[in-house]
Amino acid sequence: MSSVVPPMHILMVDDRPENLLVLEELLSSPSRVLIKANSGNEALRKVLQHQIGLILLDVQMPEMDGFEVASLLKSNAATKHIPIIFITAINKEERYVLQGLQEGAIDYLYKPLNADITQAKINVFEDLYKYEQQIRLNNIQLKAMNTQLEELNTQKNYLLGMAAHDLRNPVAAISQVSELLEK
Q1: Which residues sit opposite 52 in a β-bridge?
Q2: Cβ count near 28 (within 10 Å)
Q3: Secondary structure of residue 58 in the 3-state scheme
Q4: How many angstroms from the chain centroid is the CA of residue 176?
Q5: What is the pLDDT of residue 99?
Q6: Neighbours of 133 (CB within 10 A)
Q7: E strands within the chain?
Q8: Is 167 exposed, middle or buried (0-12, 13-18, 19+ CB in 10 A)?
Q9: Domains delineated in the chain
Q10: In this predicted structure, what is the pLDDT of residue 92?
Q11: Which residues contact 72 (CB under 8 A, 6 or more apart)?
Q12: φ, ψ of residue 59 in degrees (nearest 5)
């Protein structure tokens, strides 16, 4: 029942291209599709265009900061399930971390990024994504199999009904003949 799980799409959002390059270098893998956005507005557009499995979101950005982007994503039924990891160089204080978690982030990474920690965290999320996708695929297959079983059960009931009907006539005739013979 196992199917191939599609690669995880990771949206990387940062207003500084060099930070996106660092993330791309750290996270490149055949099992991932890396998507870049340079602003909060662009990130929101990309989320609507792709099936995103994880968002790495810079907190400090002009126009719309990461907290605002996260708040908008979490207020939308279609995007509220997407895990968000905030990336920050400045907002390391507990109150900012708490604000990010309240806005829907599930974790924080601090700049400069530690390559091992970053890769380890992303690997965990990728594994969770794969498990979730496999469960989703299995559920689809189970529903299809259940539908097929219901159809087969209906066919079986129809055939048994026909067989019972077809057997009633000869049994009734035999019963009548045996009553006549008995008399």
Answers
A1: 9
A2: 9
A3: strand
A4: 66
A5: 81
A6: 18
A7: 8-13, 32-37, 52-58, 84-88, 107-110
A8: exposed
A9: 8-138 (3.40.50.2300)
A10: 67
A11: 44
A12: -80, -50
Mean pLDDT per segment of 10 residues, for the chain of length 183 residues? 80 96 94 96 96 94 92 93 90 76 86 92 94 92 94 90 79 78 78
Side chain identity at residue 76, one-letter code: N
What is the model's pLDDT at position 41? Answer: 96
Number of DSSP helices (H) and strands (E) in the chain, helices first: 5, 5
Task: Identify the sign of the CA torsion 92, 95, 101, 104.
Answer: negative
Q: Which helix (H) or strand (E) holds 78?
A: none
pTM: 0.77
Q: Look at residue 11 in the predicted model and tell me its pLDDT.
A: 98
Q: Would you state the structure tokens that stand for residue 79, as one six-digit string?
A: 């995007």
Q: Hey, what are 117's tokens? A: 């920690």
Tell me what pLDDT residue 91 has: 62
pLDDT in the model for residue 116? 94
> What are the φ/ψ torsions at residue 145 (nearest 5 degrees)?
-65, -40
SS3 at position 36? strand
Burial, 176: exposed, middle or buried (Cβ in 10 Å; 0-12, 13-18, 19+)? exposed
